[in-house]
Write a structure and sequence with these properties.
The complex is a heterodimer of chains A (300) and B (373). By secondary structure, chain A is an all-alpha fold. Helices cover 78% and strands 0% of the residues of chain A. Chain A has 2 domains: 54 residues; 227 residues, MetI-like fold (Orthogonal Bundle). The two termini of chain A are 46 Å apart. Chain B has 2 domains: 241 residues, P-loop containing nucleotide triphosphate hydrolases (Rossmann fold, 3-Layer(aba) Sandwich); 117 residues, RNA polymerase II/Efflux pump adaptor protein, barrel-sandwich hybrid domain (OB fold (Dihydrolipoamide Acetyltransferase, E2P), Beta Barrel). Chain B has 8 helices and 20 strands. In chain B, the strands form 4 sheets. Chain B has a 6-stranded mixed β-sheet with strand order 6-7-8-3-9-10, sandwiched between helices. Chain B has a 5-stranded antiparallel β-sheet with strand order 13-12-11-14-20. In chain B, strands 15-19-16-17-18 form a 5-stranded antiparallel β-sheet, with no helix packed on it. The N terminus of chain B is likely disordered. Classes of the chains: A mainly alpha (300), B alpha+beta (373). At the A-B interface, helix 9 and helix 10 of A face helix 2 of B.
């Protein structure tokens, strides 16, 4: 029968089966077309354009002057240090708050977890601007928090909770928290309860079982979530602008300032390019160091 | 904590008996365990057998310490452990899902309980090697868990459960994820391993054949109660009630009528002439299909055998055996199973045939008939 199939492929529909397979593949690919087009239109072209602009001097010729300026002027370096400082601190705060929260959610029965997850997600659906100004109202000198704390004699004079690094971190951590909790919760949910039972059965106390089994297995989700938070923080604008009160200058704010004050597309583009490259380098290093591809695709 | 765990002995530690008394666990209004009393003898292989939801896993989890009963006592030897947290119970356990730690290698998995007990790394490595050899996985210590087949994972889980020489070993349907051939092979291996280790073993399964193959004794559980506790031989040959007769092996149950004077009849066949009749109950005759034989045409009941006559209504060839249903009076169906060798009855049987089947009186099983279920 095999021999006859080789001799008469037409007779066993070989060609038509192949055509059908190819057609199905094409249809699947065509589903991705809108997304590919959108990415080209809103990412590849603008980024390429910025990249191009950053190498144009004020005379319209190719030049490295924007990059040289970034090395010469200390304010640029300071902005980058602040940006990374704020991003790292925000990520750490998110881990400190988010890990116990995700653990709590993962331990709850399905229904209750859904309810509490709503509490995590609800701020997610509220406008960023609204949440940021809400923090301003809460934290400012004569704000709700200071008034309340002073009325019960927790402290005597208003604490400076806003228009500084503290305010920026509070606001950013709040906004970033779901980005950490969601992937972390996902990886925790995948840890079978049997594994914890097995650890206990083999002689591990709850604390030992957590550190030797649970924590290493949740690490992938934590790393994925932390990277999302960190990268989002690097380019953050609204919250540090409102809650930092001009004292916390991050890259995105400096780019705006350059555009508004000097209308210098070249300089602004150069800043953007450096931030983009720095972000990519960090992501690449993290991927290499932590085998993040496994983390991001949920393989333990 | 390591002081509380048995670490030092280099020979297999002595097995411990388990005494369970009045163990009760309720989920809402339903009893998962209804005042269970059970003695597991030191070193025996005891199987908890029951349908899903019968309470067998709840019982095992209570012994391991993972589920908190509402009341009762569990003793390992003389020690009450009902309040002891699982990590201090020092029992080995093989989980249905194997529960191997995916971020550790095979050797690290097996060394895990040894490290927790403070066994020094040289001795631990040696014991891991021995354990791997015992489950025939020599040289696979460096593998990742996801590089192993289902059967290999099963063996790693087993090695990890006995490497720290627990005096009690628990197994929760450890073979259910394996295919049939491998499962049957592992049943024999587990049995040998148990003989080798001599550890008290409590094994949970819903597979009656597995239970019959491996156990010293079987406990049949249904609806949170222990229905019958006995050797495989007695469970099969002398089931205590309809549930056990039906759950273990194949059987046909025929209703019996009492004449009120100690005689039990099926239709006009005298089944038992000296039966201590409990007037309040009805009784049934249990017939194992493979214990019937084809009798000569025209044969009738004798001192030795009962002869049922009827028409073959169904005939199915199933490989090593064939299966037939004998219709008696168009009212009762009698299941009949026989070998398929060339000399066997299958060559003389056909659907529609008028046939006489014999049952030796020594194979008669009588059980109380149950009104409910």
């Amino acid at each position: 029968m095999n021999a006859s199939a080789a001799q008469e492929p037409e007779g066993l529909n070989e060609k038509r089966l192949k055509t059908q397979g190819i057609r199905e593949q094409r249809m699947l690919l065509s589903l991705a077309t809108p997304a590919v087009l959108a990415i080209v239109a809103v990412v590849v072209i603008p980024v390429g354009w910025l990249f191009f602009l950053s190498f144009l001097g004020s005379d319209g010729q190719f030049s490295l002057e924007h990059y040289q300026k970034m090395i010469e002027y200390k304010s640029y370096a300071r902005t980058f240090v602040t940006t990374f400082q704020v991003s790292i601190l925000t990520t750490l705060i998110c881990i400190l708050i988010g890990y116990p929260l995700a653990y709590f959610l993962a331990m709850l029965p399905e229904r209750l977890a859904g309810f509490f997850m709503l509490a995590v997600l609800l701020p997610f659906w509220t406008s960023l601007l609204v949440r940021t100004y809400a923090w301003l109202v809460l934290l400012q000198k004569n704000g709700i928090l200071n008034d309340f704390a002073m009325s019960i004699d927790l402290w005597d004079s208003p604490l400076k909770l806003v228009h500084n690094l503290t305010g920026t971190l509070i606001g950013m951590a709040h906004i970033m928290l779901p980005f950490l909790v969601l992937p972390l919760y996902g990886s925790m949910k995948k840890i079978q309860r049997d594994l914890m039972h097995a650890a206990a059965n083999l002689g591990a106390s709850p604390v030992q079982a957590f550190w030797k089994i649970y924590f290493p297995m949740s690490l992938s989700g934590m790393v994925a979530g932390s990277l999302i938070v960190f990268v989002l923080c690097l380019g953050f604008y609204v919250t540090p602008a409102v809650l930092g009160g001009g004292r916390v200058v991050m890259v995105a704010m400096q780019i705006t300032a350059i555009l508004e004050n000097q209308f210098d597309w070249g300089a602004a583009s150069a800043l953007g390019v450096v931030l983009l490259v720095a972000t990519l380098v960090i992501l690449f290093a993290a991927t290499r160091l932590l085998k993040l591809d496994a983390a991001l695709f949920g393989k333990h | 904590m390591s002081s509380q765990l048995d670490t030092q002995s280099s020979k297999p530690s002595t097995a411990l008996p388990i005494h369970i008394q009045g163990l009760t666990k309720k989920y809402g209004a339903m009893y998962a365990l209804d005042s269970v009393d059970l003695e597991v003898k030191s070193g025996e292989f005891l199987t908890l057998l029951g349908p899903s939801g019968s309470g067998k896993t709840t019982l095992l989890m209570a012994i391991a310490g993972f589920s908190r009963p509402d009341a009762g006592s569990i003793k390992f030897g003389d020690d009450e452990v009902i309040l002891t947290p699982p990590h201090k119970r020092n029992v080995g356990m093989v989980f249905q899902s194997y529960a191997l730690f995916p971020h550790m290698s095979v050797a690290e998995n097996i060394a895990f309980p040894l490290k927790l007990r403070g066994v020094d790394s040289a001795e631990a490595a040696e014991r891991v090697e021995t354990a791997l050899a015992t489950v025939q996985l020599d040289g696979l210590g460096d593998r990742d868990i996801d590089q192993l087949s289902g059967g290999q994972r099963q063996r790693v889980a087993l090695a990890r459960a006995f490497v720290f020489r627990p005096r009690i070993l628990l197994m929760d349907e450890p073979l259910s994820a394996l295919d049939k051939k491998l499962r049957e092979q592992m049943q024999i291996e587990l049995k040998h391993l148990h003989e080798q280790l001599g550890v008290t073993t409590v094994y949970v399964t819903h597979d009656q054949r597995e239970a019959l193959t491996m156990s010293d004794r079987i406990v049949v559980i249904n609806q949170g109660k222990l229905t019958q506790t006995d050797t495989p031989h007695n469970i099969y040959n002398h089931p205590a009630n309809a549930f056990v007769a039906d759950f273990i092996g194949e059987s046909t149950m025929l209703p019996l009528k009492s004449d009120g004077a100690g005689k039990l009849f099926f239709l006009d066949h005298l089944i038992e002439s000296n039966f201590k009749t409990d007037a309040a109950r009805d009784w049934a005759l249990v017939i194992r299909p493979e214990r019937l034989f084809v009798a000569e045409k025209g044969a009738t009941d004798s001192d030795k055998a009962i002869i049922f006559s009827g028409v073959v209504s169904e005939f199915v060839f199933q490989g090593e055996t064939a299966f037939a249903l004998l219709s008696i009076n168009d009212q009762y169906k009698l299941a009949f199973r026989f070998g398929t060798d060339s000399s066997s009855s299958q060559n003389i049987l056909q659907a529609g045939d008028q046939v006489s089947l014999g049952l030796n009186r020594s194979d008669i099983i009588i059980i109380p008939q149950e009104d409910e279920t």
